[in-house]
Structure formats: structure tokens, C-alpha cells
Design a protein that fits this description.
One of its GO terms (biological process) is zinc ion transport. Helix content is about 40%, strand content about 15%. The protein has about 240 residues and is an alpha/beta fold. The relative contact order is 0.11.
């Protein structure tokens, strides 16, 4: 389920209360968690990790319906550089809470970082040939990935998935598609808005799907790398 419209159930609250450690991004992404983490002892707030290089949207970019999600781009898990910083902070926190197993956490972190480096090198090699190929995404959530791999993002339909794109945006995108140099328009499985179909009608631009939430990736060790490869595969296929 998308964090944008999630509501905690009583069973969720109990899980949080019983946890040795709660890891969350922060109110910019999971506003539904804000009140519950205040009374929690061990909390790691990702957005407050020192040295974490987070992107910032333009001022006012994320204000809507009276809510302000802040100007921080919360999709850090799409950026290999950011993920490395977060993985280290999580390992440090685990070591602090459970010093008897410090060696175990350190070894796991090292293995994770090695795999991260291997995976990003492999992805880089695959995406280099399509780096110049322009595309549109459904919502502005892929900046960390795009910056890391040097992709040619031309624009987005909406800033935040729960905001419907305006007519002006749609006309601009439709006009841009007509120029003939756009390779792909990406939708997302969580939102398959009719607006994308409307804009693409009559154009021969490729359509693809990006899943920022890794919905069909099985949760097991190494799943994060499966997710990165899946995402890069979706970019590569559509941009060729």
C-alpha cells in the first residue's frame, strides 16, 4: 500500500510499541507515524541521519490540499549513494542496541556494501547506452536513481501520486511527445491513471512501468539488489 494514504491499524500500533527499534523515514513520507514514534524509545529517523545527501524540491513544490510534505525528496531507497549511508546508520544502531552481535552486523554491512557496488557497476554498464534518451515519469519520485545513473528525465505528470495532473501539464507533455524525440512514458502499478493513456493517444512513444515500491519482489536477503536490477531493466527496455 502506498505510504501516501496509509492509516495505522491497532495491530500496527502494537507492533511498533513492542519493537526494539523503529526505523522510519520521517514525517515527509510517513506522516501517519509521527505521533506514535514520539513516545518510542529507540527510533532511527532516516531523514535526520548526519551526512545523508537528500534532494530538495523547489519551495512550495509539495504543498497541496493544505498538507505540506516538506521539500525533502523522501525516495532515498532509489539512490544507491543514499542507501549506503542509511545501511551504515542502521548497522551502527543495531550494534548499539545489541553489542553482543556486533561482528554479525558489521559483516552483513560489508557484504551489503560490496553487493551494492557490484550491482551499481552492472546497472551503469546497462544504462550508459540509453543515458541521452528522454522520458517522462508519472510522479517525481526517481530523482536519486536518475542522478546516480545520469538519466535524461524530461518531466513528470505530477509531483505527488495523490495529486491529479492539471490540464496545462497534460497539454505540455502531449506537445512534447509530438516532437518525436521522447523515447518513453512510464506509469506505475500503484496508479494507472487514464491521463497517461489520454496523453499518449495517437503517439508512437514507448510506454513502460516503473514500480518504486518493489511490490512483486520477494522479501529475502538480497531483495534490494533484485529491486534495483528490476528498476534498471524497466528503464533500459523502454528507452532502447
Amino acid at each position: 500500500m502506498s505510504p501516501h494514504d496509509y492509516a495505522l491499524r491497532p495491530s500496527d500500533v502494537k507492533k511498533v510499541r513492542d519493537a526494539d527499534l523503529v526505523i522510519w523515514f520521517g514525517p515527509e513520507l510517513e506522516s501517519f507515524m509521527s505521533s506514535i514514534v514520539q513516545s518510542q524509545d529507540n527510533v532511527l529517523t532516516i531523514s535526520e541521519i548526519p551526512g545523508l545527501d537528500l534532494r530538495h524540491y523547489e519551495e512550495g513544490h509539495h504543498d497541496h490540499d493544505g498538507h505540506n510534505h516538506g521539500n525533502t525528496d523522501p525516495h532515498f531507497w532509489l539512490g544507491p549513494k543514499q542507501v549506503g549511508t542509511v545501511a551504515k546508520a542502521i548497522a551502527d544502531k543495531m550494534i548499539q542496541l545489541d553489542p553482543n552481535n556486533a561482528v554479525y552486523y558489521k559483516e552483513n554491512l560489508e557484504a551489503f556494501m560490496n553487493e551494492l557496488q557490484l550491482t551499481t557497476s552492472e546497472i551503469n554498464a546497462r544504462l550508459t547506452p540509453v543515458q541521452d534518451h528522454g522520458y517522462f515519469v508519472f510522479h517525481d519520485g526517481y530523482g536519486y536513481f536518475e542522478e546516480f545513473f545520469g538519466l535524461n528525465h524530461l518531466g513528470h505528470f505530477t509531483v505527488s501520486p495523490e495529486r491529479k495532473p492539471g490540464a496545462k501539464t497534460l497539454i505540455q507533455i502531449k506537445t512534447r511527445l509530438a516532437e518525436g524525440d521522447v523515447y518513453c512514458v512510464f506509469s506505475e502499478p500503484q496508479y494507472t491513471p487514464a491521463v497517461i493513456e489520454t496523453v499518449m493517444r495517437g503517439s508512437d512513444v514507448n510506454s513502460g512501468e516503473l514500480d518504486p515500491l518493489a511490490t512483486d519482489v520477494e522479501e529475502k536477503p538480497g531483495a534490494y539488489f533484485v529491486f534495483l536490477k528490476q528498476l534498471s531493466g524497466q528503464f533500459e527496455t523502454c528507452l532502447k
